Amino acid sequence: MTVVAAQSSGGGTSTPASDDSGSDFADTADEAGQECTDSWNESNENKASVASIATAAQQSENATAYVNVGFSEVFPDRCMITVANPSTLYAQQYLQDSGNGWSMVPAWTGSVSQIDSSNLPWNGRMAKDGTIIIL
């Protein structure tokens, strides 16, 4: 049996495909997102620094940033994490390096209003320590 994930034209996320029998592989996208999250949480030495920026200006003890865990439209085999701060309306995107590494420098920064709709909706949250939790 072969499992195929097709890139949607909106980009950014994998869409489950069907085999010849018509069975849906709904878990394929969820599994890929969890693999990206695990890579971020386990292989990212810079996640605490990212979180300090992502949760800046939030007054809550449990400050969290909104997160989209998906894939790069340009490099569909690499995870892309989009992080947004609800207090500052500032957003950043991080592209997974080859292997499982993550750069300290974001691939993109800007206003939340500039985020491409393919990187929405938010499917996770980032804690103050930089750990991502898929919702």
Mean pLDDT, nearest integer? 79
The low-confidence parts are: 1-26
Order of helices and strands: EEHHEEEEEE
Number of helices: 2
Shape: globular
Strand content: 25-35%
- How many beta strands in the DSSP annotation? 8
Q: How far from one another are the termini?
A: 29 Å
**Gyration radius, rounded:** 15 Å
Major sheet: arrangement of strands = 6-5-4-3-7-8
* Range of helix content: 10-25%
Largest sheet data: 6 strands, antiparallel
Helix- and strand-based class?
alpha+beta
Feature tags:
single chain; 135 residues
Short description:
The chain contains two helices and eight strands; from the N terminus they run ββααββββββ.
In terms of topology, how is this protein built?
Elements: E1 5-7, E2 14-16, H1 27-43, H2 47-54, E3 65-71, E4 79-85, E5 90-95, E6 108-111, E7 124-126, E8 132-134
Antiparallel strand pairs: 1-2, 3-4, 3-7, 4-5, 5-6, 7-8
Structure in words:
It is a single chain. With 135 residues, this protein is of the alpha+beta class. The protein contains two helices and eight strands, in the order E-E-H-H-E-E-E-E-E-E. It has helices spanning 27-43, 47-54, and strands at residues 5-7, 14-16, 65-71, 79-85, 90-95, 108-111, 124-126, 132-134. The strands form two sheets. It has a six-stranded antiparallel sheet, with helices on one face. Strand 7 (124-126) and strand 8 (132-134) form a beta hairpin. The radius of gyration is 15 Å and the shape is globular. Mean pLDDT is 79; it is low at 1-26.
